[in-house]
């Protein structure tokens, strides 16, 4: 646990009692604060009360009279589409609002560091797509290299639940826009921006607000090194804002769309080959094509981002390459589940929007595509250019029929359920085909989250070979 500093003997309110909220309450108490907690859910409040926390109704008048700060869990809106009533009340009373990420950065350093040869460092990763895989890949390569590392934030453990880091240790954080938007302190040593595509726009008041939330990771604390994917206009703009000139090595530019040249520090991948250049000269290269845990251009972008972040820590290219080659991939993200009768089954349940689904569709030839769920604005119309390798689509969930209307001449079958889609795709599959779950939709119509949807896909694939009762 990372005890929260700076609130000794002060009352701090915590709104939202999920994983991050309860961890914040524990860490506040460990640092000498007096946490009071609240959640809209009666069940969550009862559990907190049973665990010994002081439950205070933050919706009543006078609830903030003695409160020093309000800590808000990431799923609770603080501005758009409208502030939660408790957040609104805190702001009305002049009470600062923060989250567990802000508490982490203000409390991460400790007196023990005076005895360390190398202070612990933080790599923070944000972006629309690929941030989970990039974060996990960085962590994996560090561990493979024998460097102490912990993975936390939007993946792995809550940031305040990690162990105090030792001499030379690295903490890798995946940070969502919900987390970067509100944190009052953001001071990573290395910050990574993967890419940007439309997502969570209602929560941020549009694309500009969404980008602004991501940008805060780089603007608030000024990382020593910034790794920026420059294939999107926002990334190119961000890199330009952070750089003092073409040769400024504090910014490492990343691309999978073009070869990067010039006097700066660049990492790009073309036709499956990663290349690092500095001062206009190539310094290292890696063939990514035969790494099974990193299929497709989108994973090559993840590999480039992870490579650049690790190089910012002065880790040797050959050490990074060994880590990349031993990476098995992340669950529900281009995860190879099985190969059956020459047909490969791939679980990319995390592809919940059209941009991430497009990346998955570009990664494999001869695709039998399982798509659908709770569709987002625009449906799958934007995927039309990426349907050329789709042999047939198998549509599920609430948006199945809407998606069918947007497929044009692509053969399709409405299956409604995920299990039925797996059975149908396996029935039709031929050697060399890939049955790909890349829903391009949220899971909430049939599953509580994308993980449960991915687990159901894996179970359905495994059930194909299960014996049946006579």
CATH architecture of the largest domain: 3-Layer(aba) Sandwich
Per the CATH scheme, the topology name of the largest domain is UDP-N-acetylmuramoyl-L-alanine:D-glutamate ligase
Average pLDDT rating:
94
User: In which range does the helix fraction lie?
Assistant: 25-40%
Topology of this protein?
Elements: E1 11-15, H1 19-30, E2 34-38, H2 42-50, E3 54-55, E4 67-72, H3 85-92, E5 97-98, H4 100-107, E6 121-126, H5 131-144, E7 149-153, E8 170-174, H6 177-182, E9 190-193, H7 201-204, H8 207-219, E10 225-229, H9 233-242, E11 251-255, E12 265-270, E13 273-278, E14 281-287, H10 296-311, H11 317-325, E15 335-340, E16 343-347, H12 354-361, E17 367-372, E18 390-396, H13 400-404, E19 412-416, H14 418-428, E20 434-437, H15 450-463
Parallel strand pairs: 1-2, 1-4, 2-3, 4-5, 6-8, 6-9, 7-8, 9-10, 10-11, 11-12, 16-20, 17-18, 17-20, 18-19
Antiparallel strand pairs: 12-13, 13-14, 15-16
Helix pairs in contact: 5-10, 5-11, 10-11, 14-15
């Amino acid at each position: 646990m990372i005890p929260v500093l700076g609130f000794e003997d002060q009352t701090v309110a915590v709104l939202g009692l999920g994983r991050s909220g309860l961890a914040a309450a524990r860490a506040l108490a460990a640092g000498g604060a007096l946490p009071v907690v609240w959640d809209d859910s009666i069940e969550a409040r009862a559990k907190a009360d049973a665990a010994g926390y002081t439950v205070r109704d933050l919706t009543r008048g006078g609830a903030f009279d003695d409160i020093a700060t309000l800590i808000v869990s990431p799923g609770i809106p603080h501005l758009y589409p409208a502030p939660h009533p408790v957040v609104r009340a805190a702001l009305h009373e002049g009470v600062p609002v923060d989250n567990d990420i802000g508490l982490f950065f203000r409390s991460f350093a400790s007196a023990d560091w005076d005895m360390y040869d190398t202070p612990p460092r933080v790599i923070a990763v944000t972006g629309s797509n690929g941030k989970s895989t990039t974060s996990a890949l960085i962590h994996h390569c560090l561990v493979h290299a024998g460097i102490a590392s912990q993975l936390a934030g939007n993946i792995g453990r809550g940031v305040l639940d990690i162990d105090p880091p030792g001499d030379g240790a690295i903490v890798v954080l995946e940070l969502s826009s919900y987390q970067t938007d509100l944190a009052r302190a953001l001071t990573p040593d290395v910050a990574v921006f993967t890419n940007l595509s439309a997502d969570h726009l209602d929560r941020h008041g549009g694309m500009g607000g969404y980008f602004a939330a991501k940008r805060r990771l780089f603007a608030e604390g000024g990382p020593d090194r910034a790794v920026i994917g420059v294939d999107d206009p926002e990334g190119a703009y961000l890199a330009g804002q952070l750089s003092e000139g073409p040769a400024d090595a504090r910014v490492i530019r990343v691309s999978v769309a073009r070869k990067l040249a010039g006097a700066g520090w660049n990492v790009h991948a073309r036709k499956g080959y990663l290349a690092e250049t500095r001062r206009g000269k190539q310094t290292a290269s890696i063939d990514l094509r035969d790494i099974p845990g990193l299929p497709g251009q989108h994973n090559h972008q993840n590999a480039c981002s992870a490579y650049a972040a690790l190089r910012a820590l002065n880790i040797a290219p050959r050490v990074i390459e060994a880590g990349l080659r031993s990476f098995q991939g992340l669950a529900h993200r281009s995860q190879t589940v099985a190969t059956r009768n020459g047909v490969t089954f791939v679980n990319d349940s995390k592809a919940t929007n059209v941009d991430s689904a497009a990346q998955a569709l570009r990664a494999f030839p001869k695709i039998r595509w399982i798509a659908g769920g709770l569709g987002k604005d625009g449906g799958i119309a934007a995927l039309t250019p990426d349907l050329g390798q789709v042999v047939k689509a198998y549509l599920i969930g609430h948006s199945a029929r809407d998606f069918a209307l947007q497929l044009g001449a692509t053969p399709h079958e409405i299956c409604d359920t995920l299990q039925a889609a797996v059975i149908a795709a396996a029935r039709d599959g031929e050697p060399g085909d890939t049955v790909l779950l890349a829903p391009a939709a949220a899971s909430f119509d049939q599953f509580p989250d994308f993980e449960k949807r991915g687990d159901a896909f894996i179970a359905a694939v495994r059930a194909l070979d299960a014996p049946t009762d006579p």
